[in-house]
Design brief:
Length: about 425
Amino acid sequence: MMRALWVSMMTVAVATIGLSGTALAQVEAAAAAGGGGLPPFLAKMKRHDGLVKVSRKGADGAAAPVGAGVEVGISVLAGGAKVRDYWVATGDNGEALFRGIPSNPEVQGSMRYQVMVDSGGVRFPFAFNGVPGEGSSIEVEVPEVTTDTQGVVLVHDFIEMFPDEEALVVRHQMSLLNEGSSAVNLGALPGGGLKLPCPAGAKHPSVHDEHDPLVEALGTDVWYRGALLPGGTPAQISVVYTVPYDTSTFEFVQRLPIPSRIGVIVVPRDKQKGHRQAFPLTLQTRGGLGSVSETKTDGDRTFQVLRGEGVTLGPDEPLQFVVSGLPSGSRTPRFLLLAAMLGILAWVVFGFRSRGGEQRLSRAHLVIERDRLIRTLARMRKATERGKLSKNRFEKEQEAITARLVSLYRAIDRVEKQ
């Protein structure tokens, strides 16, 4: 019962906070006319005028008023939910006067306030504690806003790779830091954001949070469209993509338009879920970028780890390392498939033409090719069962070889009937 009463009181209080001064007066007048008076928490509702002074720090480090026309807001939150925003433009002295900001001792413990300043296309939030008081003032300072990315650094926090169906699956987590003194509005760059190309050969990138309006995957690039505050919280970007390979060794190469640092790069040494056998991968550095070690988790899983050890790469300087031990299948089935396709082409072009009464292709030649393809199909089936050839590749090559076998059987029948 008490819980239901408190929820009801909070609902009425939140609704009342959003009323204008005139509307609140009307509520009070209606309650007085009814003779019932106001509930205690409504009777204690107060409104205050407050001043927000906004300054901006220049290149020399000195702060000065922002001047007229800068939009300043105060957001009132109750129980974690936004109740109402109040917006005022600054005058020539960089001050914004707010009227009627609410407070209420009955529910003040659940109320919070936030100041917002819109400057240079960037919204700067400032949370403050306490209760608004009559004639109180708040001073906030905003930095200069630029599109110069000189102070922006990307950190490769975590790169994890494992093999799957002729491609490396890569989980790549990055952070964008602003180590400069100005706010950087990356959304104002040409193209509408900071373009972060995926590694060479990468396909189908997808961002972890598809509902994040600041991060987007387009083609083989990831775009960040937000702003970075100096010394603020890093912007997190998490993306998954695949990189096809056709040999047991793959060289990872990624070039970015801004400086970057290497965090941790991980490959597994144990059998992965869904694999028939273990494919222990290894890492090798390029150009002295970090060092490689082996580590075990609490669950006895083993990984090779490459750590950057504070190395910073310049713009367009590649993050480069080698992954070895990939389960690349033998090239023999591919060559056999190519040979079979060439054989089909030769049969279509030349058919069974005779020269001087002799057959172009004898029955013995057809039988030899038939038996060879049957043996190849059996070897591929065993390789698939041992996990050395993927099921997907086996089915594709089996289809081509079977088609050739059908043609051979028909050709043998025709020769025998002659």
